[in-house]
Amino acid sequence: MRMAKLSLAVFWVCSAMLFASGVHAQDNKAGNDEVISVRTDLVDVPVAVTDAKGTPIKVLKAENFVVYEDGVKQRIEEFTSSSAPFEVALLLDTSGSARNDLAMIRSAAASFINSLRPGDRVAIVGFDMSGTTAGSSPTIDILSPLTSDRKALNSALSGLKTSAGTPYYDGMGEIADRVFGGAEKAEFRGRRAVVALTDGVDSTSNAEFGEVRAKLEAKGLIAYFVRLDTRDYFEENLLGDCEAAMRFSTAQIRRYYRTFKGNSTMEKASAFCQLGDFERLAVSKKLYQIADSEMEDLAKRSGGRVFMTSGLADARRAFQEVAAEIGTKFTLGYYPTNETRDGRYRKIKIELKGLPAGSSVRAREGYTASKN
Questions:
Q1: Which sequence spans correspond to the domains of the chain?
Q2: Whose CA is closest to 197, among 324, 302, 295, 283?
Q3: Phi then psi for 160, rounded to 5 degrees?
Q4: Helix (H) or strand (E) holding 328
Q5: Could you tell me which residues are beta bridge partners of residue 48?
Q6: What are the angstrom distances between the C-alpha of 235 and each of 124, 202, 229, 283, 310?
Q7: Which of 62, 326, 354, 371 is such that its CA lies 20 to 30 A from the CA of 102?
Q8: If you ran DSSP here, which 8-state letter would residue 342 be given?
């Protein structure tokens, strides 16, 4: 009898252990399945395709594209058609010569917003002046968060103000941090852009270009620029009495001297009034060269473009071209075969397949892998 009771007890203990083990195994399996099935390293690649005449091709399939990462072919897992909506942050530079044409900037921006498709969402960012006990300084003004409400957006434009300086880098950084700082919605994956009306010549930012570029790339933002040519206006007001002239900021003077790498013997000015007319023109030329190079760099790496204008009167035409371009973007998504989280920059190359000769593609050129 005792042996029977003992055997029965052992049976129940073993059964309980097996049941617990089975439940644990199922839990682990469920956990493992979840880890395996959920990948967060999907790389989104916005692309625009044109024919031999430069006309956008709007009807394509995933089979028309081949994606390579660092020379290794990748499998396209997701494909979004050009009709899918976009999120766009519109940065309006109201410093410098633009301060005299605020109404024209509002009108051009309104035209751009109304040229986008009904499902596209837009945020508006401008510059303003904030007062402190030490004086006033340029600040970033987010006039509207992302919304598809055209009436609200056009109303927000009425609040656009002018600035006595150009915190361009800070503005781009705020767009990455605040406008696109929240969780990315599935329908806008790989379909988010910054459109900046600016000459790109920063004068007052705390951030530097490299920092801003890293932020934009981390968010996968396409960069478009409607480039204002303000050089003649700036240089007309640059020469003569240093107290009355339009002047460079300390940050701009430092940025100019940084271009002379390794020349430690060069005499360097630390304030505007220490610069003669000849050197003022040299600084101006270099600052505009830096701005042009940075805009081209951001646009090219992200798959965007720089639209040249002859001035604000031409900005409406450029904005319409940007809106048309946004409406022709496809988005490809792939999971990299290289799963190493090394924080390195990886090059992306897109090839076309099954399209007429002369067709060309413009796409994001790469991304920085995440790092453990």
A1: 43-82+330-368, 87-326
A2: 295
A3: -65, 130
A4: none
A5: 362
A6: 29, 16, 12, 10, 16
A7: 326
A8: B
Q: What is the pLDDT of residues 36-82, one digit of tens each?
A: 334 568 999 999 999 999 999 999 999 999 999 999 999 999 999 99
Q: How many CB atoms lie within 10 A of CB 308?
A: 13
Question: Got the DSSP string for 186-244?
Answer: GGGTT-EEEEEEE-----S-SS-HHHHHHHHHHHT-EEEEEE---HHHHHHTTSS-TTT
β-pair partners for 129: 138
The residue with tokens 């999971």 is 335
229 vs 96: CA distance, rounded Å: 11
- Homologous superfamily (CATH) of 87-326 is von Willebrand factor, type A domain (3.40.50.410)
CA neighbours closer than 13 Å in the CB half-sphere of residue 247 = 15
Among residues 311, 307, 304, which one has the least CA distance to residue 321?
307
- 185, 222 contact by CB (below 8 A): no
DSSP type of residue 135? E
Q: What is the pTM of this model?
A: 0.85
If you search the block for the tokens 């599935």, which residue do you land on? 186
Sign of CA pseudo-dihedral 92, 131, 169, 88:
negative
Alpha-helix runs per DSSP H in the chain? 2-37, 102-115, 150-157, 168-174, 209-219, 231-236, 250-258, 277-302, 315-326
Average pLDDT, the chain: 86
Residue 9's pLDDT is 47
Contact 60, 330 (CB under 8 A): yes
DSSP per residue, 82-129: TTS--EEEEEE--SGGGGGGHHHHHHHHHHHHHHS-TT-EEEEEEEEE
User: Is 19 a residue whose pLDDT tops 70?
Assistant: no
- Residue 299, token pair as written in the block: 């646009």
